[in-house]
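Globin
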Amino acid sequence: MSNQSVPTLYEWLGGMDALTRLTTRFYEHVKMDSLLASVFAHMGADHPNHVAAFLAEVFGGPDTYSTQHGGHPHMIRQHLNRHLGQDQRRRWVVLLLETADELGMPDDPEFRSALVGYLEWGSRLAVINSQSGAEADEDAPMPKWGWGEVKGPYTG
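Predicted structure tokens:
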């Protein structure tokens, strides 16, 4: 038995450099995607870095998104009244996974299971938070995702 601790998802995927490469390349693809381009047409040049910081924190890395960008309430506010649909959500998830493959990110079953689990969970929350009448809970905690998360039903 090894005394070595289990790495965080953040460590396993290669840290901030890997996440920045992923989100930068992903949003290059998004700009050319017929289903997603209009959703992100007004995104600023810093958007990929903000998403990388968010994912880093969710996956066990530094808390930069919370300390510098407003944490989970800020992310929720970015989706309010955007009226996202399941077709856009599914395409977002598939394109992100295709980009991870393109960049040679880890593809072992354990990591991909955790990644897909988070992307499905998080993207479905984004759709919920994008509908009319949704509000940002200013106390919403930052999601934390590991190797085998089980979350209860979203009741927000």
